[in-house]
Each structure stands twice: as structure tokens, then as C-alpha cells.
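Morning, I've got a small favour to ask if you have a moment. It would help a lot if you went through both lines with me. Thanks so much in advance, here it is.

***
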Amino acid sequence: MLDFITHLLDVNTTFFTVLDYPMSYLEFFGTIFNLLCVWLVARNNIWNWPIGIVGVVLFGVLFYQIQLYSDLFEQFYYLITGFYGWWAWWYYRQDKKQAKEKVLKISHNSQIHNLIYLGIIIISTFALTAFVSNIHIIFPNIFPVAASYPFLDAFTTVLSFVATILMIYKKIECWYLWIFVDIIGVWLYFAKGVVFISLLYFIFLILASKGLYNWLKIYDKDNKKTDNRTGNRKILPATSRTQILD
């Protein structure tokens, strides 16, 4: 049984061939689960989290085999934040009766938080690049082959880390980061020969753009609310999509 599972999870085990491209079980099902995850989160649907957890495990195995080690570490991070995000979205949705202010709503980051995250991205990218570039020297038994595209791999990994945190707390800025990650991912995975995942990231790019549009629309709608204390309808001024608000 273990040999059968190992065989299925081998990136060289072909599920089917399309246009002379050998599609592995691992790449195909990992792509499907991750695609479904992004589609659900763009619709603000809580089921994106468990679906995404399955996709994370499959992609983790894949990235190890194609030497994208930063992406491998990224999947461990996604696994942890996947369970936390699932809990956070469920908790704040179910807690409405206890305290309405605890309901997690779509919102913007403050300018100071954006600057803090920018600093984290810059510092973490260079630190992770240095580590991943030498990981085959530090841990030769675990990572026998040098990392591919260490800077781009590290950069997109750090961007994804920050975007996931912002997504958990329903910050609109997460979509700008995801769009940037997807643009780089389209080229990076094509260069690594995993064409189906490159196509997946192109679809991710479309879904991220749609997710940004949907969340902005929900945010604008929530800004037009009734003042429950007075019973009067309070119309808040419309906000620009480029304006940074708390």
C-alpha cells in the first residue's frame, strides 16, 4: 500500500498526457484543489481553508521533488495558517450573537501597517534567499540538489506569507500581493517545466483580480450602513480603491 501511494506521489508518474506534456497525479490534483481554494476565497467562502489544506500537502510533495525549496517551506506555513484561518473565519462568523463588533469584516490596512509589512518583505526576502541558496550545503542529505531560482522563489514565498496573514484578517491588500505573486509564478513554473502549474497561476491571476473586485464591492457595501444606536441610516463617503484606510 505504501509503495502504491509513493508511486502516485512521484512527480514522474504520469496520469495522462496532453499536447505531449506528461501530467502527473501530483501536479493535476494539487492544481485542482488549489484552484478550487482560490475560487472559494474570492467568493469569501469559508470552505476555501480545508480545500486549500489538501492542495498544500500535494504541492509540498511536488516542490520538494523539483527543488523549489522556498515553495516547500511555504507549504508548511500554509498548512499552519490554513488551520488557523479556518478557525478564525468560523469563530468570528459564529460569534455574532455574543458581540457584533467581533464579526470579521473586509477592510483596508492602515498606512503604518503597510509600511511595516513592506519592511518585513524586503528583509525576509534577502534572508530567505541567502538561506535557500546554501541549503544544499547546509543539509546535503535532505536537499541534495541546489535550489532553483532562489531569489524569485524566496520573494514569492515571503509575499505569499504576508498575503496569507492579510487574507486571514480579510484585508483587501492581500489581493494586490497575490496578483504580484501570480504574475511571477506564471513565468517561474513555466521555466521549471511544470506547465500545468504555470497555467494554474495564470488562472490564479484572473481569480485574484476578481477577488479584489469582489472584496472592494463588499467593502463599499458595508460602508453604507445603518446607525443602530439612533435608527438613522448613515451613509459613509465612498472610498477610492487606491486609498489606504484603517
